[in-house]
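Protocol step 4 of 6: structure prediction from sequence.
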Amino acid sequence: MSLQEILDDIEDYLEYRRDEGATSIEVDPEVVKGLSKPARRSEPAPNPEVPGTGPAAESSLDDVAAQIAVCTKCSLHETRTKTVPGQGSSSPEIMFIGEAPGADEDRQGVAFIGRAGQLLTKMIEAMGFTREEVFIGNILKCRPPGNRTPMPDEMETCMPYLKEQIRLLKPKVIIALGATAVKGLLDVRTGITKLRGTWMAFENIDLMPTYHPAYLLRNPSAKKDVWEDLKEVLHFLGREVPDHRK
């Protein structure tokens, strides 16, 4: 990857942060120093270094996003338009995790903004939250070509970024959206139909599996099941379930 390509990725990320309303961004000085060194292409590392565990042990969400913006650990960087680190509150009660960005997200660098994202917004609002009060992200930070299902090695390579985000966000509950997200997070073979609505855990945080909004677009009858799962999360958080009959 050339220095110009790295700079282009950084520029894309800065534009995304500007659109999100950021007026300043913290950057690790070591990352800046590294830009002056020739970039070397290498094979994806089997156990990529977890952000925030090296010499500069303390990182921020912006640091993680900056590392994602220049990541070349797997081949997905060759076809992406923008990286999609995720967005939302820096101290959310709930973190929603899907599988990977789609075409709309790849163009804009923002998670869940297509048709499925619009439905997710309605789900969040039905719970009594706004998108700005939760955190929304994916296991993969780059779009797989043609929106194909993420490969296991891609999820494994990208997982350290997600784990670092979870460490920084400290959500009370994770809601895993869809079969691929659940499999990538929990390494289970049981189907989402059997797992949804059953409390599990990831990184010592309670996790509720449920259907992906894209599945609900194809199968509207499953919305009632998802609403039961979301109500269970509200009960867990000690929140009242909004009465939508009013």
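Step 5 (inspection) to follow. Confidence is low (pLDDT under 50) at residues 34-57.
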